[in-house]
Amino acid sequence: MNFKISKIILYLLLFFLLVPLFVLVIWSFSNSWPWPNMLPKDLGIRAYKHIFSFRTGTLGVLIYSIILSATVTLITIIISIPASKALGVYDFPLKKLFKILVLAPIIVPPVAVAMGIHVSFIKMGLANTFLGVVLVHLIPCIPYGVRIITSVFEGIGEKMEIQAKVLGASSLQTFFHITLPMITPGVISAASMVFIVSFSQYFLTFLIGGGKVKTLSLVMFPYIQSGDRMMASAYSIVFSLTTLMILLIMEKSIKKKYKRETDLFV
Amino acid sequence: MRKVLSILIILTLAISLVACGGNGETNEEGNVLDKDWKEIVKEAKGTEVSFYGWGGSQQTNEWIDGFLADTMKEKYDIKVNRVPMNIEDILNKMLSEKQLDSEGSIDVVWINGENFSTAKKSDLLMGTFTDVLPNFEKNLDVDSEEVKKDFGHEVDGMEAPFGKAQFVMIYDEARVDKYPVNHKELMEFAKSNKGKFTYPAPPDFTGSAFVRNIIYDIVGYENVKDLEPNKEQVKEKIMPAIGYLQELKPYLWREGKTYPATIAQLDNMYADGEVVMDMTYNPNSAEAKVRTGEFPESTRTFLFENGTIGNTHFLSIPFNSPNNPGALVLINEILSIEAQASKYDPKNWGDLPVIDNSKLSEEEKALFEEIDLGEATLPQEELLTNRIPELPADLVPIIEEIWLENIPTEGE
User: Signal: is it a keyword of this entry (chain B) (predicted)?
Assistant: First the structure.
């Protein structure tokens, strides 16, 4: 009985998640789809022709966005792991406050802060550069990284690491052979989340990148705004498929690397 | 383990190198405008020009990425980098850069109207440059109002015409028997086709132009063009038109309780057959949308008998453009006969040319006449003879405010 209900819920969820995506796919091929037709009146590939023609350079933009978001993800994870360990394992005064403060970048609207950051970045010569955009993406990304990995550390505690140290492992050995394999599942979900957050940044990229750093969201947004539904849908499809593919690749490759070790503990 | 560490270090170094590269560029300026044209072309060779402007139209984007980029590459070895960005955002960016007097990234900006006057007032533009461009004198009527004025503001050579736009109404021939050519007929039309007509709520650009067109039709352009930007006076003058719009309201889509917020929404409503009329500030866009299949084949355009509003859109160069010579060469190329003709073709974009027809040779005229405008587009002569200039830019927001105060909508 219970089993059945949970299955129904699962399918309902899938249905509600997938149907809008499906509509998006249809729209990306529809020249016109007037009411009351159930199906589009006229199909075409205008949008994909535009996206995949070399002239418009969308493919280059796509690859550039992936590199940018991958860099952001890597840096975020590197920063998040030690921070999360501190928040998840150690006890120190005002720990609760720090935990909440980590979320501050998501709570405070980015627009309020970004203008000031832009001015400082211009002064430092970071505006309109790749590095500048990477740095500013870290702001909305780190909270996700830290929160997700913190809960993993809260779960596994410090015992395994202490055990390794007792047996004579150095700190680095402990980290790479004990800690990292254990937190890998958490790191994967954090990295996925961070990648998506970075990949879909529009406002920050556009303000700090000033058009010199051209990402997919930047190219996609004008079409959504101008109401070209076919174009907007096609870009969204390319956008979603790219993220999906990156996430799959990331999960597969990381899992493979740590497979043997994780099996020991999980 | 070492490997991971060293990869990390390399990455960090690589990233910081990228950043340094960004800082190290210096901008050798001289005074470009004093130089000989040949020298400017030579300096521009092999450089990259960043073109910033609205990027919401596939055709416009493809014209810039295609025809323009190819021509620039072949003729001058210049790479064109198009950056889609709304003009308000471009202005904000330039304002912050002005404050800190830093180097910019924009070489050419697509601009007009109020935004131009803001940019000019805040010293965001390079200066008077049009007299340097050979094609400016050669192909344009440099003394015409459309070249010298932009929404009533003196251009002073700080921007060069790019193309012309004109307000036209769109209708579906299959669903409309007789299109209305003035405000009275429009009222009749709305009454007999309840809920089948509406217009985007100002301050949407096109909706606001529709309201101005109604004002022209009822009050007359002559009577409003010299008004001071004083709300009370403007309101008094345009009240008949506002009264008309109030009367029109109950016959509109959803009884006028709400209006489409943007022209994009109205375009989509027309494409979906929810309304039978649409409007646009680009006289070729209806044809373009018929060709992409978004609009029905039976789409046509028309003008009001007393004419419709037209304006010119321009190109300018920001004060901190990193590549002045490149920007000048690009703008000059856009003013060439070939570029203007290619841009006019609805197949490519369909933007009205800024060329002075009397300066064209027979062959050049043929270039324009050969273009197949399609059924939905009105011929250029008809548009140009029924063209009324825009109001001064500072009156526009006042009219929008008066509309918002007097035409109540629900849910706001």
Answer: yes
C-beta separation of B63 from B71 below 8 A: no
Give Cα B332 distance to the centre of its chain. 18
Question: Any CB–CB contact under 8 A between B265 and chain A?
Answer: yes
| pLDDT tens digits, one per residue of A161-214 | 999 999 999 999 999 988 988 898 899 999 999 999 999 999 899 889 988 899
- Is the Cβ pair A123, B273 closer than 8 Å? no
Q: Residue written as tokens 């974009």?
A: B349
Q: Which CATH number fits domain B32-162+313-374: 3.50.50.60, 3.30.530.20, 3.40.190.10, 3.30.428.10?
A: 3.40.190.10
C-beta atoms of B22 and A225 within 8 A: no
Beta-carbon contacts of residue A203 (< 8 Å; ≥ 6 apart): A110, A111, A114
- DSSP helix/strand/coil, B79: strand
Residue of B nearest to A216 (CA): B84
Please indicate whether, in this complex, the C-beta atoms of B11 and A119 are within 8 angstroms of each other: no
Q: Which domain holds residue A11?
A: 1-44
Find the CB nearest A222 among B84, B97, B296: B84
Question: Would you call A176 an interface residue with chain B, using a CB distance cutoff of 8 Å?
Answer: yes
The verdict on pTM exceeding 0.80 is: yes
Q: Pick from A57, A218, A226: which is nearest to B56 by CB?
A: A226
Identify how many contiguous H helices and E strands chain B contains and give both numbers: 19, 11
* Domain ranges across chain B: 32-162+313-374, 166-310+388-406
Interface membership of B6 toward A (CB under 8 Å): no
The hierarchical CATH code for the domain B166-310+388-406 is: 3.40.190.10
- Burial grade of B361 (CB within 10 A; 0-12, 13-18, 19 or more): exposed
ipTM over 0.85: no
